[in-house]
Amino acid sequence: MKKVILALVVFILAAIVSWIFLCNGIGRYKSMVLANQNSKNIGKLKAGMTKKEILKIMGPPNKIEVYSLGSRVFEFMLYRTNGFANLFKDKEANYTAVALDSSSGIVLSLDRKFYNDVLNSRHK
C-alpha cells in the first residue's frame, strides 16, 4: 500500500512539474509571437498621432498605466516588444511605452525614457 501511495505522489508531482514547464513554454512562445508583431507595428507609430490611430495599428495594449505629474495626466499604453524568458519573471523592459496626454489623447512619446522620467519625477 505504501508503494502505491508513493507512486501516486511521485506521479502527481511529475504531472505538476510537467504542466509548469508546458505552460512556461507555451507562454514564452506566445510572448515572442506577440513581441514580434508589436515590434513591427510600433515602427508605424509617431508622436502626434491620436489614441484611436494607435489602437487601429497596434490593437489593445498589454498594460495601461496612468500617472499624474503636477496638473498633467499621462496615460501609458504598454506593448510587449520583447518575449519573456520565464513565465514567472516578466520584466518591465519587455514593454514599449506609448505615452499619451490624457487631456488631448495625443501621443507624446514612444520610448521608455519618457515613461521612466515620469515615474522618477513622481518619486522626488
Describe the protein's topology.
Blueprint: H1 2-42, H2 51-58, E1 63-69, E2 72-80, E3 95-101, E4 106-109, H3 112-122
Antiparallel strand pairs: 1-2, 2-3, 3-4
Helix vs. strand class: alpha+beta
Count of all domains: 1
> What is the element string, with H for helices and E for strands?
HHEEEEH
CATH architecture call = 2-Layer Sandwich
Any idea of the CATH class?
Alpha Beta
Low-confidence stretches: none
Taken as a percent bin, the fraction of beta residues is 15-25%
Shape: elongated
Helicity, in percent? 40-55%
Record the strand order, biggest sheet. 1-2-3-4
Summarize the structure in words:
- The chain is α+β, with helices and mostly antiparallel strands and 124 residues long.
- It has 3 helices and 4 strands.
- It starts with a helix and ends with a helix.
- The model has no long low-confidence stretch (mean pLDDT 82).
Summarize this structure as a short list of keywords or feature phrases.
124 residues, single chain, 48% helix, alpha+beta, Beta-lactamase Inhibitory Protein, Chain:B, domain 1
Quick structural gist:
With 124 residues, the chain is of the alpha+beta class. It has helices at residues 2-42, 51-58, 112-122; strands at residues 63-69, 72-80, 95-101, 106-109.
